[in-house]
Amino acid sequence: MNKGFDKATFKRTVVDNVKNMFRRTIDEATPQQVFQAVAYAVKDVIIDEWIATHKEYEKKDAKTVYYLSMEFLMGRALGNNIINICAREEVKEVLDELGFDLNVIEDQEPDAALGNGGLGRLAACFLDSLATLGYPAYGCGIRYRYGMFKQKIENGFQVEVPDDWLKDGNPFEIRRPEYATEVKFGGYVRIENRDGRNRFIQEGYQSVMAVPYDLPVIGYGNNVVNTLRIWDAQPINTFNLDSFDRGDYQKAVEQENLAKTIVEVLYPNDNHYAGKELRLKQQYFFISASVQRAVKKYKEKHEDIRNFSDKVVFQLNDTHPTVTIPELMRILLDEEGLTWDEAWAVTTRTCAYTNHTIMSEALEKWPIELFSRLLPRIYQIVEEINRRFIEQIQSRYPGNYEKVKKMAIIYDGQVKMAYMAIAASFSVNGVARLHTEILKNEELKDFYQMMPEKFNNKTNGITQRRFLLHGNPLLADWVTDKIGDEWITDLPHIEKLAIYASDYKCQQEFMNIKYQNKIRLAKYIKEHNGVDVDPRSIFDVQVKRLHEYKRQLMNILHVMYLYNQLKDNPNMDMVPRTFIFGAKAAAGYKRAKLTIKLINSVADVINNDKTINGRLKVVFIEDYRVSNAELIFAAADVSEQISTASKEASGTSNMKFMLNGALTLGTMDGANVEIVEEVGADRAFIFGMSSDEVIRYENNGGYNPMEIFNNDQDIRRVLMQLINGYFSPQDPELFRDIYNSLLNTKSSDRADTYFILKDFRSYAEAHKKVDRAYRDEAWWAESAILNVSHCGKFTSDRTIEEYVRDIWHLSKVQVEM
Ligand code: 26W
Fold first, then answer.
1. Residue positions of the PTM N6-(pyridoxal phosphate)lysine (predicted)?
2. What is the pTM of this model?
């Protein structure tokens, strides 16, 4: 309950907003119009806090973290915002009185899908935690005109549709033209010697104006409102028709195009680097604007730029914002007049880098030609950083040219962003314990050996405010009823639930809530997929980006295997199971898209087979995104976390499922390791090779899946069904590529790169255990409650406190209203 919240005023504001904005009375308003009116009314409520928060930061002269990220996967704002101002009940009542249903109104809002998957959603959870904990923080990113594409499934295939998320405007954002900044691309560098010093002057460049839009990030119940600042691009000078000559005209057109294209669209690739010039432009665009602004702001209050790191820390969310390093150097050298050593000291005390993946395809390496053409002055600086770094390597390892080859920032015609990030950051962190160990001992071994003090782990977390309080209100109320509401801002309190885990009545209550949530999801599936699913069946869910290493393919092959068993033995004793998938594939990732088609083809056959009595169902949920994720987690019984061990840096959906009482079926990978450590191995279903085994095989050239294919008749049968038209009668060859990827070394450099066949039996065994375990209702309910009660570690509040303690060194700020 929010004591300061005045229902009558709020109601009046909503009614007035509808009038002013749409010239309608409230009873004539469409749900979309009501959404707009309510969102503006909420902005009214928080605007004073937003101003007060920034005044307080100024007054305290507080150190600030700038979380620099190409992606912020915020999802919808309205529901989350009214929860964080603790006025959900009141707003719901106001809407009831006006004749509207809050849930319907919330559904009018498009997701802010300015991210692909885990990395972008982590950034959003971090912002929520930073505000709730009261830490001075900015998120800095790009205001993409089109976010993550909307996924349509047509004839079983993924079709990408543009996400025109701004078409009705964005009620929460505020344009801040007073902070607009010029960003320069291309041209050449002229060196001019003035007063015995070389000046570097970029000439013949093209530029765009970066214009910031601010979005409020509301802390939970604490008056703190932080800012997510996303940059839009505008042409620098509109046509000046009086004075143009041919050259100017040409340039004006080009600059206009540059501004338009730069922020046009989010690259929908997850874990795959494509080397596109426009992407490097996007990176430099938002980084240059953010860093320039941070420096300017610092200088408003402070004399000596050499103490910059006392007040500012830049957290680089993966390598995507790595140009922060040479851009800060450029400003310090060329504009502030520091010496190289002074500038380097500032930069290396200000920048910290987070690594989110070991997938080698994801490593950003820019061709020198492209990099130096687009960013000529920045490239000069990178060359000098590289020259000095190589000197450092050589003095540490005299005569060891191998080391230089392996570690140089510029090598083989390419600029290696990860190496620059490591060389110039004072902190390098992985995102789960296992991941950090693999970085130290395998991927980044050479760097770890040379500078071990930089490396540290920060196991990811998620915000319980969105993924339990907002996404699962029935369970949230039940938890609060049992143990009070401290868990909302201090998740480890949820441990107190453990004493109820073995209580029969509590088990019944808990399972009934799960059942209600399954009905809610079943309704969604019926509306969106036209498929009937039985809420009494086990909801077995895998939702995440589609990628070979995440092994959705292994999941669907196992479904095929189960189906074969049911066909052979129609009386087979099995708990009805609904396999639920949700996943977007990168638009150019053929095999991933084909896997989606396979899932849908298998679903078609199985869901329409009357002979199996609905004991097996397969559902592919279209357009998986933050808003429907909340419904999905709440309804899940089984959480599929089945990546090839060593490949998933952390995973965060695993934590969201756990928080909602699903049991993990997974490999010992990423944060699964720590989940199992918290809840106990007996409350999860663990299978498959260890990361050590996987790495050992990889270092020895893989394994031979043919042996398995030849000796395991069930697996062989499933694979043959990929190429005999069993699930694609009109086109028996359709899934040939998938078949080849598993068996044929010619189709990829190794057959079955992700050890699907190798892990298959152990995976099937784990599924059998799930089937047996679910029959013991008391055990299942107990385990589900224990999962909830042991998820305290996985709040992003804990993660943020660790970043603050070890890396950022911020102080909490109180905002009194
Ligand atoms: C350059 C293309 C590209 C795009 C995105 C390369 C790499 C990425 C991201 C690093 C991919 C990503 O989202 N990684 C995920 O980050 C999560 C948050 O730390 C982890 O939980 C996931 O395990 C990791 O896959």
1. 656
2. 0.98
